[in-house]
């Protein structure tokens, strides 16, 4: 594993963040998590384009291009000597004496490269459980910002209920998970929340959309309610780290037969083929 900050590669336990750093003090920044499979980054361009969009959305000027980030990431991965790893890339509004207004200083870029620890076979084979939770986040969840307080609070509530994920509900409709996109299966077709300011445009979500078509699984981007969630045939979530993961119980009630469904399994198998 290895770390990087503002031009230097460092070990992960090195103390590198000054007290007056805006990511640290304000959560004033954006980030990405990119998976490397066998030395090859998965959908890196899409991740980097989303990073640049997130930065634009918070008016954080960055001089690096997609290609600059690409070579920086590949250099870090090489230095880490890891083949299956997660790259965490963060950009903040930089280091300046604490005050709310934007400072006139360069952005800070930092990165960690850590071994990927994939979910256990048991979790994949039996599926995971979830709770529903009020979506208490702000109105701009399409930005992958460092402000994750509502996400971590909801995830912790899920954990304390013995569950893996919290499914967020805004005005009666499912938005997404605390760190995942959410999908249901109805009459064999897949439904997921349409893109809007209220959800993150997941990269794994794009991959699943692309996979569904050749498998002849209909894919609809439509809103669904908490009731429709509970009466779904199948539920699954997607993210860079969870990939395609079945959810078999919500709020202690079984979904469908309470086991991973056929559509979810097919999509996961095809996803694995894509990244192998
Ligand atoms: N989370 N929605 C939210 C709120 C997320 O934080 C994430 C990713 C996703 C899925 O996006 P993608 O498929 O691009 O990973 C959806 C990352 C993995 C994290 O915060 O660790």
TrEMBL record:
Q: Does the keyword tRNA-binding apply?
A: no
Tell me yes or no: is Transferase among this UniProt entry's keywords: yes
Keywords (alphabetical) are:
Aminotransferase, Pyridoxal phosphate, Transferase
One molecular function GO term is: D-alanine-2-oxoglutarate aminotransferase activity
Matching Pfam families:
Aminotran_4
Q: Catalytic activity annotated for this protein? A: D-alanine + 2-oxoglutarate = D-glutamate + pyruvate
The EC number(s) this enzyme carries: 2.6.1.21
State the PROSITE patterns in the record: AA_TRANSFER_CLASS_4
Cite the Gene3D superfamilies for this sequence: 3.30.470.10, D-amino Acid Aminotransferase, subunit A, domain 2 (3.20.10.10)
Cofactor(s) in the UniProt record: pyridoxal 5'-phosphate
Which InterPro entries does the UniProt record give?
Answer: Aminotrans_IV (IPR001544), Aminotrans_IV_CS (IPR018300), Aminotransferase-like (IPR036038), BCAT-like_C (IPR043132), BCAT-like_N (IPR043131), Class-IV_PLP-Dep_Aminotrnsfr (IPR050571), D_amino_transT (IPR005784)
Could you give the subunit structure recorded for this chain?
Homodimer.
* UniProt record similarity statement: Belongs to the class-IV pyridoxal-phosphate-dependent aminotransferase family.
In terms of PANTHER family, this protein maps to: AMINO-ACID AMINOTRANSFERASE, D-ALANINE AMINOTRANSFERASE
State its role: Acts on the D-isomers of alanine, leucine, aspartate, glutamate, aminobutyrate, norvaline and asparagine. The enzyme transfers an amino group from a substrate D-amino acid to the pyridoxal phosphate cofactor to form pyridoxamine and an alpha-keto acid in the first half-reaction.
What's the protein called, per UniProt? D-alanine aminotransferase
Species the sequence originates in: Cytobacillus spartinae
